[in-house]
Amino acid sequence: QQQVKQSPQSLIVQKGGISIINCAYENTAFDYFPWYQQFPGKGPALLIAIRPDVSEKKEGRFTISFNKSAKQFSLHIMDSQPGDSATYFCAASENTGFQKLVFGTGTRLLVSP
Amino acid sequence: EAGVTQFPSHSVIEKGQTVTLRCDPISGHDNLYWYRRVMGKEIKFLLHFVKESKQDESGMPNNRFLAERTGGTYSTLKVQPAELEDSGVYFCASSPWTARGEAFFGQGTRLTVV
Q1: 3-state secondary structure at position A29
Q2: What are the b/e assignments for A103-113, b being 16+ CB within 10 Å?
Q3: Chain A interface, mutation test: which of B33, B43, B50, B57, most A Cβ atoms within 10 Å?
Q4: Which of A69, A75, A80, B56 has the most neighbouring CB atoms within 10 Å?
Q5: For chain A, what is the total number of helices (H) and then of strands (E)?
Q6: Which of A32, A97, A103 comes nearest B42 by C-beta?
Q7: CA distances from A46 to A68, A89, B10, B92 (A)
Q8: Is B7 helix (H, G, I), strand (E, B) or coil?
């Protein structure tokens, strides 16, 4: 049973466009929702994270939108650049104080020049 | 400052053999986690150490997997005997002892069992 469902599996966006990746979760005990970015040959790196007390968080070109009632959250990449081409993972964890993360299956993003 | 380091980067072994993966966390990080990604699927939690103690090993697939963390420093994950379904990328992550300290991931070890 997959606790965090992520879509799409892959995404092609033109340079300058908006990339949108969606995630949905089941466990209402989740209270921390990070997004990780992974380049080939590297490990996942924290990109941006949100807690359910806010509906949106923005850091530069990256924005997380969070809908607690729908149990959904999404990552928006504005003005997408070829350097953003990577695999993106959404994740969630409960309020245990530790990083026991439940990941989505990942989205492979390709930003075409 | 050095990041999380994993050895080896790749390992190809035959079914039934033993493999040991190693993780060196960021110095001073008390929390160490092992995760695994089977091809095309999600990254799954395996276990969590706080210093040298196992805090949570609920994600370990079966008793063929043994994790240790000697003296609260580096950690090893041994698979014995390896099966085909153990193939995947094994990630190690570490985080400091603070509330929700960010977890830093290593580059992973790609294990292929043939």
Answers
A1: coil
A2: bbbbbebebee
A3: B43
A4: A75
A5: 0, 11
A6: A103
A7: 21, 10, 24, 14
A8: strand
B25-83 confidence digits (pLDDT tens): 999 999 999 999 998 889 999 999 999 999 999 999 999 999 999 888 999 999 999 99
Q: Are strands A10-14 and A107-112 parallel, antiparallel or unpaired?
A: parallel
* Residue A55: CB atoms within 10 Å: 12
Return the residue in B7, B48, B92, B100 with the most chain A beta carbons within 10 A, the one to mutate for interface testing.
B100
Q: Which residues of chain B are within 8 Å of residue A46 when distances are taken between CB atoms?
A: 102-104
In this prediction, residue B101 has a pLDDT band, given cuts at 50, 70 and 90, of low
Residue A1 has pLDDT above 70, yes or no: no
End-to-end CA separation in angstroms for chain A: 38
State the Cα–Cα distance between residues B68 and B11, nearest whole angstrom: 19
Phi, psi values for residue B72, rounded to 5°: 70, 15
CA A100 to chain centre: 16
Assign 3-state DSSP to chain B and report helix, strand, coil percentages, each to 5: 5, 50, 45
- Which residues, 6+ apart, have CB-to-CB distance to A91 below 8 Å? A4, A33, A34, A35, A36, A101, A102, A103, A104, B43
For residue B5, count CB atoms less than 10 angstroms from its CB and return exposed for 0-12, middle for 13-18, buried for 19 or more: middle
